[in-house]
Design a protein that fits this description.
mainly alpha, binds zinc ion, single chain, 574 residues, globular
Length: 574
Amino acid sequence: MTRSWILCLVFCVLVVETAKPASQLQRSTVTEGMVKVVNTFCCPRRLRCCIPDKRVAIDKSVDEIEARMWLRLYNAELRKRAASAAEASWAHSTNMNPTTAAAAIRASSQLKKWKLKKRKEAKRFTPAAYSEDLRRQFWLISLDGTPEDSNDLRQMSKLKNDIETLYSTGKACRDENEDEVCHPLEPDLERIFATSRDYNELQWAWLGFRDAVGPAMREKFARLVELKNSGAQEHGNIWAKWWGNIYSLVAPYPDQPDMNVTSVLLEKGYDPLRMFKTAEEFFTSIGLRELPEVFWEKSMIVRPDDREVSCHPTSWDFHHQSDVRVKMCTEVNHEYLETVHHELGHIQYFLQYEDQPMLYRDGANPGFHEAVGDTIALSAMTPGHLRTVGLLEDWPDSHESEINFLLRQALDKIPALAMGLMIDTWQSRVFSGKITADEYNREWWKLRLEYQGLSPPVQRTEEDFDAGSKFHIVYGFAMMRYFVSYIIQFQFHESLCREAGYLQGPLHKCDIYGSSEAGDRLREMLRMGQSQPWPEAMRAMTGQSKMATSAILEYFQPLMKWLREQNKKESLGW
Ligand SMILES: [Zn+2]
């Protein structure tokens, strides 16, 4: 035996011995890479068995430095891959045709495949032995629910795209002046729902869109549920949203001026761009970031008339050099002014956490992401602020006008809580198998009645698929994000008002415009992204770590008192 053989044998024995008590290992210098080097280059052929396969199998790397390096590469690669998938998806959403659809499916499948590969690769690390930061990043990687079968993966991307395309391009058609005219959901049918009081027209719009999208989507949705469930099992886990449009029918004091600013926006010549500039100015007044050039260059803020697009308002992060955009078909009216504030909340969140590692570039929880813009709107859409920016001229400072304002706010916020619960209850029962594919619609309407007191205007059957008319079901968004958002945005509002030095007046009159103190507090939370568990982000924002309903109750307190009086002689319920 030559000297090098003897040295190699000693080295092999040392490596094997160091790796021995694998079950109790907390830290070790033995890595899979080292074993490979020893076996391939150091030991002569005959001695390759010196570190047997089973030793390699137990060689889970617990080296924190290696784990940190691996995560750094993972974050860098994820940023690039997520950016190109987002570009392909954006190209399709803003120009829907078979070519862009195919490219979007391909990009999304590639990203999912890569994530799956990395999820498997990550299993060789032992996060429990590492620091909190690394444990959290590995935990976030483990949450990915991509199915392992590549056929399932391809089918899933294709089905998801088909369903989204059916929804985004669905139209209700009717004869208008002897021509057939087809109307998309956004903005045409939404405008009809918001303004028409003609029962027949409302019924046509309601039914037309559902007939156009629901039945064609039903089977695809059922198959998608199966596939998603298989992905979830592999790794162990698994609209009447806003009622503000019926305000004119239920206004408590109809002879008082309406706080809807649509007519003033139109009179003053506002266009969508000016609405965005107005909302942006609120964010910068409290010291948050200006919208970058690329936002103005690349966003789609009005509906183009030369192609099919998806109009549902969404905000996008391209994960590179502040490339953030919105996609929406903005109309000049009160509701869209609120929506613009909502979307710019998402955009501001993207901009504030852009220096975090890719795995942390998200909201503390999805409810936080939804709450930011709404929190700003709670100030920006107060009668006081709207008067300051010249959008509300004749607004009397009276008890009656205060009740009118609060009822309008309540119609937008409170039914959304019930709707969020209802939709997520339906979705969770579908995914758990409690609701089967042959009872989708019956169970949908049962829950609509139970949670929201709503019934369909015409007879529905299992030929229909009314859940398919809801954007969040089509796009696979859990509604719990909105439920959480509608509670915590009032907590955020209360905290920012306190920070701005508003300590006396009623919460619904507070306007944080121009307060750098409030802006600093908000920024501190936004910059965290999801680097900490959400109770920590809540603590940074409000000083306490729990979701609480005290702020929403305080905000609506004058309205609740008024309603209690009005309802004394009414029997409530349905
Ligand atoms: Zn949103």
